[in-house]
Design a protein that fits this description.
2 copies of one chain form a homodimer. With 266 residues, chain A is mainly β. In chain A, 11% of the residues lie in helices and 40% in strands. Chain A contains 3 helices and 16 strands. In chain A, the strands form 2 sheets. In chain A, strands 1, 2, 5, 6, 7, 8, 10, 11, 12, 13, 14, 15 and 16 form a 13-stranded antiparallel β-sheet that branches. A two-stranded antiparallel ribbon of chain A has the order 3-4. In chain A, a hairpin with a 2-residue loop joins strand 3 and strand 4. The longest helix of chain A has 16 residues. Chain A is globular and about 50 Å long. Chain A starts with a helix and ends in a 5-residue tail after the last strand. Strand 9 of chain A pairs antiparallel with strand 14 of chain B, so a sheet runs across the interface.
């Protein structure tokens, strides 16, 4: 028993360029499987096909809502290089194309001799027990809330209580349920596990993701991940969400950006 | 004669899912065709295949250096929706796979009724004639310099003279040569037309792009585009470059992010 996330996102090769997954219930929000979970599961099949463990840069375009149950991932290697390997994939759930992906994978070993420049820092967060969270047992709580542990910066948690901050940002801690160890594929779940930033803008409703790209910069150390998601531009019915994920050693382990559609008021 | 960029990046359908392009000399730097030019040209074929003019979100993974001459773009529609359409593509130059792409296209009409939130502003730049530029006729100047007009913020131009600022940023103006009108496909050129930000970090050498994603947020008004490119994290041999492109009406027209490899000192 590797842990619920690892078990849930397991893929099995069932033929040349075909993987199957069985998405259990519990990863959905309002009946739709969380986008980051789909992203991570399809990336596992891509990593398997190219024989490299770490997603250095992976992009998903979301085609239709994902459903629990049997999923099929079709993969195709594009280029297998010495240091990096690129593949594309399409994942179908409930027999329907769900996400299209393109990604480059490698082996992320720390390189202490590499130049280092860090113009940024992890978000300043109170200890996890001082942060706000949604209880998985609360009425109306989506099943997904029980699969990951998200602890919100108290200043960004107003949206829970109907008092959004007015700033489309979310800062908080993330880990898998039961503190299951997380690998670089798990970071693809982390970058899409927080509620939409627009929940804090006062614009109600879900913001469906058109496209999500993650860059994994390092393998995460064990422990809580400190995360920050910010939207700077809501224009023409679209918004971007920029994410940073920092591990317990204050190392930047992933960056993400997505483009999403504004919730429609009507 | 639509202009040199439009003519150079023209694509012609020569069969189901096949486009040809003829990349003229003059778009290269050190013999390699500029990545943004390849990105824009392949996106033209994708836009043609899906029947939507504007690249809302496009990602390219760079497989090998691009060469001038005949290019072939293989495209495949992934999903044609009501509002957006998604396609993938692979472009070969000199008979060799050069970039793999995945993108979603739409029709970007301004929507004055849409909520607007802008947490940011164009870079503050002196007038173009007060900015620094590389003369296309200077000795050693790459041919690409004559194809686009880039005017650097004087504070970011130290790298010309061997005095990098120490901050991996580049701010400046961009337009096509001869002030050729630019469309949303042209913005894909703009997001990769500046020198690598690391030229200002003191790390010498080219920083090859692994992957580049652009989000086009609006159609650009005529005139100079104000651009900003920043690198915040150089870690483990990799760096990201975040770009913003603003038009002459101070509207954000594109965002970009790429992940690139650090120049090797050896």
């Amino acid at each position: 028993m590797a842990g619920f996330f690892t078990d849930s996102s397991r893929v099995t090769s069932t033929g040349e360029g075909i993987h199957h997954a069985e998405i259990p219930p519990g990863w959905d929000i309002g009946g739709n499987v969380n986008g980051g979970f789909l992203f991570a599961t399809a990336a596992r099949a891509m990593a398997d096909v190219v024989g490299r463990p770490d997603p250095v840069s992976v992009t998903a375009h979301f085609l239709s809502p994902g459903r629990a149950g049997e999923a099929e991932i079709l993969t195709e290697p594009v280029r297998i290089g010495r240091r990096f390997a690129t593949a594309r994939a399409t994942m179908a759930t409930a027999g329907r194309p769900t996400i299209a992906m393109l990604g480059t994978f490698g082996t992320l070993e720390p390189d202490p001799d590499s130049p280092l420049m860090v113009r940024g820092a992890p978000p300043e967060l109170p200890a996890p027990e001082q942060c706000a969270h949604l209880a998985p047992t609360a009425p109306g709580s989506p099943p997904f809330i029980g699969r990951v542990e998200v602890r919100f910066h108290p200043d960004d948690a107003g949206f829970f209580r109907g008092t959004p901050t007015g700033t489309p940002s979310m800062r908080g801690w993330f880990r898998l349920a039961d503190n299951e160890p997380i690998d670089t594929i798990g970071l693809l779940l982390a970058v899409d596990a927080f509620p939409p930033t627009v929940f804090n803008s006062g614009l109600l409703g879900w913001a469906p993701t058109l496209e999500l790209t993650a860059h994994v910069r390092a393998r995460p150390a064990p422990g809580w991940l400190a995360c920050r998601f910010d939207t700077r531009f809501i224009t023409n019915g679209m918004l971007e969400v920029d994410g940073e994920v920092w591990d317990s050693t204050d190392t930047l382990v992933a960056q993400s950006r997505q483009i999403a559609l504004l919730p429609r008021g009507d």
